[in-house]
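Purpose: get a first structural picture of the assembly so the mutagenesis plan has something to point at.
Setup: two entries, given in the order below. No constraints added.
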Amino acid sequence: MSTSPPHHAVTATSATGERTGHPAIEFVGVRKDYLSHGEAVPAVKSLDLAIAQGEFFSLLGPSGCGKTTTMRMIAGFEEPTTGKVYLDGSDVTNVSANKRDVNMVFQSYALFPHLNVLQNVSFGLERKRVGKSEIKRRVGEILEIVSLTGMEKRHPKEMSGGQQQRVALARALVNHPRALLLDEPLGALDLKLRQQMQIELKRIQREVGITFVYVTHDQGEALTMSDRIAVMNAGLIEQLGTPREIYEKPATRFVAGFIGTSNIVEGLISRVENGCAVLDLGQGERIVAPVPASVQAGRTVEVSVRPEKIDLHRTPPQATGSVLSGTVTEVVYHGTSTNYTVVTSAGSDFVVFDQNAHDAEDVASRGERVFLTWAPQHSYPIGV
Amino acid sequence: MNRVKRTLAPYLLVLPGGLWLLLFFVVPMVTMLSLSLQQGDIINGYRFTGHWQNYVDAITDYRAQMIRSLVYGLVTTVALVVMSFPIAYWIAFYGGKKKSTYLFLLLLPFFVSFVLRTISWRQILTDDGMLLHPLKEAGLLSPGFHVLGTSYAVIFGLIYNFLPFMVLPIYVALERIDPRVVEAARDLYAAPMTVFRKVIFPLALPGVFAGVLMTFVPASSDYVNSAVLGSSGTTMIGQVIQAQALANSNYPMASALSFFLMAVLLSGILVYAKALGTEDVMNAAAR
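Result (structure tokens, whole complex):
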């Protein structure tokens, strides 16, 4: 059970729970198939992943992308079909859930309905045969962190969703697990409470210093809270990186489309100058995107650009970067910004977010002919 | 006008059922209570005299049958809980898509009349029947061995006849348990037996409670199983009541016995409910 992953030279796992030099969680060559009507259907196709100690790590993707299966393999509710799972350097692939030092916060909270808050939160420590006075101290401490002091005798059904959520969090955190797994924990809360809990979770994570693995389909949530994000789709990680990297430099078309809004244009590289590919579209329209030296003229690329990076002009601009022209088909006022949909001369829809920092007269109206420009560094060629 | 209608609506809805209960439950109960305090005989008729002696006679004359009935009922109920839990558990957690098929199979024999089923068991259990005969032939049992006519046969019959009434409520309670709650217990270091003891069983208690009510009461007052599978040594209180009412036409005695049985069962159940803390159990399951 406690063999070290092959690529680690030193095994330094300690039974006392001391932090070691190993990643908190590691997947090596993991695949998970489910049997459906006698056929093996992959939920996770191939997964190699290391989550660092103390990291706030998010698994982000649409439903059915394999993120929940991945989390359940960490918790021990699913066994990988092939590959290994390591916790703090020790192989836990075949260790059952009740013997793994990780705890989970379930989407529906899954509190024990027949137990009160105190009994719910003490459940794990009692199973670990922690002394009575120690349990009392730790439960008191954690209830204070999640601001539930004074609610010890309440039953789950007597509490609001937000309070139940915090009981679930306390019930897991009180055990000082190696990692805390959160399965869309804020999904059932309303927007205001959700935003409040996002900040709260981040604060708690800083306070306790435990590795958090956060499963969500909400890209906003993942971007705000995570140190790193793995964007998953169809059983594979599409991109792994910091929120900024994921947003600014989407590695695949899927990531560009799933995270925020992206405008994607495909075209032939006319020439490469100063490290930038130029896609000439005729009539003064062009797209300029920085590319690695290996990229030559004559190949096709997909270029993504974020709506807020684009400037909107009513007169032909003098720009060095990308220039497109088109007709405004939709104007939606959002308070802090105005969102325009522009059909370019090439026929593709472009979304532009214009900050409402200037006078109202600057707003273009429907049917108006406009020019779109953006700096070369805001073009991001996908998968180059 | 509308307000009046709205206020009256719930009462109007209760009216048909209420009248039914009044006519066929309350009226007979009062009649029976009055009957249990009457005196006389079948030829000259019975008159109400507040004759408490009926109760004294009922208790002194049939104490043995009363105690036997309660013991049979209790043994049956305990055996039913032990047997039904695994069945209900298996169907609820491992039944998969075939859950309703299994439940149907469980209920299938009960489409046949209660009496007929019990009589067929008599055929099976009889001294030279299909069960004992081969075993005796093989020398595994002594030729004098018999089951029919013993307490075992009666309790066996009771268990058989009341099985679904225990399995179904436990199944319903187990079925309602959120699988995530079970996973949460495992996640919080509970070994399989601990998960059962600390989470699954407490959450299934309302079902056990309902099952006990639905089996203990009718099993204790049953008169068919002992009549068909038992002997004079297994006479239950239900049989006594039946004989007093139908054979001896001693209606006051039959009524007094019935009321006494009802009082015993009710107080037993109240003690049981108190001990189990029904309020808490029901609330927990209701969520």
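Chain B touches chain A through 26 residues (CB under 8 Å).
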